[in-house]
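Troubleshooting: if your tokenizer reports a length mismatch, compare your output against this known-good record of 283 residues.
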Amino acid sequence: MSATRINGLAVAAAVKAELAVRVTALRERGIVPGLGTILVGGDPGSKLYVAGKHRDCAEVGLASIQVELPESATQAEVAAAIRALNTDPACTGFIVQLPLPRHIDEHAMLELIDPGKDADGLTPTNLGRMMLGKAEMLPCTPRGIIHLLRHYAVPLDGAEITVVGRGITVGRPIGVLLTQRGVNATVTLTHTGTRDLAAHVRRADIVIAAAGVAGIITAAMIRPGAVCVDVGVSRIDGKVRGDLAADVWDVAGYVTPNPGGVGPMTRAMLLANVVDRAERLLG
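Known-good structure output:
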């Protein structure tokens, strides 16, 4: 068996094309949605990722607001930048690029973001609203994963799904979203304390690997024909490696490549959050 490739690049392009139409309609009504980013320091990966987000903005017609601070920026300076975007009428939504330098308290900074402008959907308020099924801004990667699975007509209602990793950006929120009414999957959330990871993975119809450990999921752990979503990112010898070992492709039914799978969808959903909010503001 050779798995079918889930093409995140193609699906993200379709999402952006639809968003461009909606942005044009907003502009015709005098509304120019704007995405803001706050980048602290010069981490190469973060710089590339932020640059990609602003290229995406140009593609769909969003305005870009870029705030860059040096590695030496104080917590007070980062907080001031957040407050400035909170009150900037040109900014519809924004993100603080993570990770922040070690001397900055990430949780404290996220708490400062206006929940209405929280384009990443990661403020405590929006995560709490998500638990209640009331969130308007959803975490981008989980939202993108569900969009991908639905695009490929992967059955979710009643599906057994194993999530590997309990991080706040993917593992925990994807478990919440997949178990909400309207999706109705059964989710097992595994982590470093899980006693028999292989056993949990092997019984899953869908595996979402978000541990950030290169090759942690192997073919021997996968049920033949299962759907495998690779979210983890590791850099080894300068190359991006995902959580799925190469031999998973020989057993699984569908696989997201890494890169080229979930990553483009994360960026597309960031844009979608901003456009959604701009439309809500119109009433």
